[in-house]
Design goal:
Blueprint (H helix, E strand, L loop, with lengths): L1 H15 L27 E4 L11 E3 L2 E4 L4 E4 L4 E3 L11 E9 L9 E9 L10 H10 L6 E11 L2 E10 L4 E10 L2 E9 L2 H10 L22 E2 L9 E3 L12 E8 L5 E9 L1 H11 L3 E2 L2 E3 L2 E3 L1 E8 L16
Parallel strand pairs: 12-19
Antiparallel strand pairs: 1-15, 2-3, 3-4, 5-6, 6-7, 7-11, 8-9, 9-10, 10-11, 13-16, 14-15, 14-19, 17-18
Length: 328
């Protein structure tokens, strides 16, 4: 979070200062790129269509953050807004969905920030299978410089269950309140940060207007009636009837996490690349269009399934932190 804030400060400074490189029209001293240089777009998120909602597709409009993928709406506190959008998802499935902070019109005596983030449980490197396990893992991984103010506890907000975890930095004088719930096999987190404990508690009270799907919860959240059921590792074993491996024209040593939606007939109807180079996305899309799966039955009827596949280099999972890593 500190690095993220630092990056935002650098971005703001860069926007205010004259550009010093590249062919910028507003800089009379701009330098053109040298000849025989090729610029290649890096690994990025993309999807096979522009209609199906994506986790990173949330937006702030009319002082409300809404995310169709998660079925989430969040009315922001008065005079709070999103100034900068987050980066693309990481190759381990971490999303910065929104960064909320007081606007220039804010007149309160204390300031803070609200980070809305999500961790894809299909690709997380942490040894966690639900929201409570992930929050507990993060708690155990705190360095001794931090103090645990409240161990992970289940609470109710907006008639939904969350895992709440509070910690602080006595040296910096900062406090963090983490509220996490699981939706569609993602751990959606609201990370509230401030020096003022009263401000943090008031922000939690204002979260009573949240709207979340009924299936959201610290140890549930696999899907709901109007979205595909999410199943980890469904694209393996006997579930795969026909499989075609992608043919890459170039070899890159990066992990390529892919979420797919399988229709009721066992065909791939949607592909979401969390991080991939364009040539990788094309090769994988061509291959997945030929895959066939066993239809997944729920109550004897076929339903759509959402699952994840990791192509390319598989990241090394991180180990469980020592039980003595945190201080209470």
């Amino acid at each position: 979070m500190v690095l993220l804030g630092f990056s935002i400060s650098l971005l703001a400074s860069a926007q205010a200062a004259p550009q010093s490189g590249g062919d910028f029209a507003n800089n009379p001293q701009a330098k053109k790129l040298p000849t025989e240089v090729i610029l290649a777009k890096g690994a990025w998120s993309s999807a096979s269509d522009s209609v199906t909602p994506l986790p990173e597709g949330g937006r702030v409009a009319n002082n409300i953050y809404s995310n169709p993928y998660f079925g989430l709406t969040y009315a922001l506190s008065r005079d709070w807004t999103e100034k900068y959008s987050g980066p693309p998802p990481s190759d381990s499935g971490y999303y910065v969905l929104a960064q909320i902070r007081p606007a220039d019109t804010f007149t309160g005596t204390s300031r803070g920030s609200i980070l809305i983030a999500a961790q894809d449980l299909f690709f997380t490197l942490a040894p966690a299978s639900n929201a409570m396990e992930l929050i507990s893992y993060n708690k155990d991984g705190l360095s001794p410089d931090y103090k645990v103010d409240q161990t992970p506890t289940v609470i109710r907000i907006a008639d939904r269950s969350f895992a709440r975890f509070d910690y602080s930095s006595p040296i910096a004088g900062l406090r963090w309140h983490v509220l996490a719930t699981q939706i569609r096999c993602h751990v959606v987190q609201f990370v509230l940060t401030s020096r003022d404990a009263k401000l943090l508690e008031s922000l939690i009270q204002e979260m009573g207007t949240l709207k979340l799907p009924p299936s959201a919860g610290p140890i549930s959240g696999t899907g709901r009636d109007d979205v595909p059921v999410c199943i980890k590792d469904y694209a393996s074993g006997e579930n795969v009837v026909e499989r075609v491996d992608p043919v890459f024209t170039e070899h890159s040593f990066n992990p390529v996490p892919v979420r797919i939606i399988i229709d009721k007939e066992g065909k791939v109807k949607h592909i979401h690349f969390l991080s991939a180079f364009p040539d990788q996305a094309k090769a994988i899309t061509d291959a997945l269009s030929q895959w066939r799966f066993r239809p997944y039955l729920r109550d004897g009827k076929p339903v759509e399934v959402e699952t994840g596949i990791m192509f390319g280099r598989t990241p090394r999972p991180i180990t469980q932190p020592s039980a003595n890593a945190a201080t209470e």
